[in-house]
Amino acid sequence: MTSSPPNASLASKPQDFSLSSLQQFIADSAGKKSPRSKSGTPEGSKSQNLALQVAHNLRFQHEWTDIRMHFRPSDRTTASSLPRPMISGMPPRRLYVHPDEQIEVLRKQREQGKAGWPDLAAEREWVLPTQLKETWTLRRFAEVFDALAVVPAEGEGGAVFSNGTPKADVPAHGSDGDGAEGEMSKWRKTQPKRLLLATVDDDSTVVYYIIHDGIVKPRQN
Questions:
Q1: In a 3-state reduction of DSSP, which class is residue 39?
Q2: Rounded CA separation 147/79 (Å)
Q3: How far apart are alpha carbons 108 and 114 in whole angstroms?
Q4: What is the mean pLDDT of the chain?
Q5: What is the number of structural domains in the chain?
Q6: Which ranges are annotated Polar residues under compositional bias (predicted)?
Q7: Helices (H), strands (E): how many in the chain?
Q8: CATH of the domain at 139
């Protein structure tokens, strides 16, 4: 009688090294979109893969549309470079309402005899992909804000998802009742720049925080 080694059955069993859908998406996107160095390897692949992971989370978990990735500073700034790849996109609903705009919206609702809170037009948002282990200072945040316009200009950045187009059947209204989705409101123009700080943990959990470039009035409940 011959005995086989204890690990023979395990060794003979084929192992599954297939990529998850997220890993495959990141690999495909990095291969197609990464600027390459002379050695043929993607430049800033770690920061770009982090941005792609956040973009994936925004698209499929939070239903953002028209998600774009930015590698260069906004044309309306004097910055020479972006500290890292940035994301911009359209959330399904408004993420932030300035306290002064909130007062005006409630006043107009009262004047029109309406109750409740209206559906305000969504606004395009900047997203800064980061990892939980990173250390951020005011100087680093200032470098990012200096390279960004208030909102991305039309045509800036490259599309990440071919199917990430805004939904045409979702009504949206500005605070004055006739705003259109994606347009910059008068409140956005006069407010400090803002972005969403996307913080990714080791377990792929992503948490978002609204960050302003300066002091803003506290929101009212």
A1: coil
A2: 5
A3: 8
A4: 76
A5: 1
A6: 37-48
A7: 6, 6
A8: 3.40.1350.10
In 3D space, the residue among 194, 198, 180, 211 whose CA is nearest the CA of residue 152 turns out to be 194
- Rounded Cα distance, 187 and 192, in Å: 10
Please list the ranges in the chain whose pLDDT falls under 70.
1-44, 162-184, 220-221
- The rounded distance, in Å, linking the Cα atoms of 121 and 171 is 8
Structure tokens at 139: 């100087």
Distance CA 143, CA 141 (A): 5
Domain-located, residue 174: no
Domain hosting 155: range is: 42-95+123-161+185-212
pTM of the predicted model, to two decimals?
0.72
- Tokens representing 21 are 């859908």
The answer as to whether 144 is a domain residue is yes
Residue-wise pLDDT for 72-120, tens only, equals 988 878 888 889 999 999 999 999 888 888 888 888 878 887 877 777 8
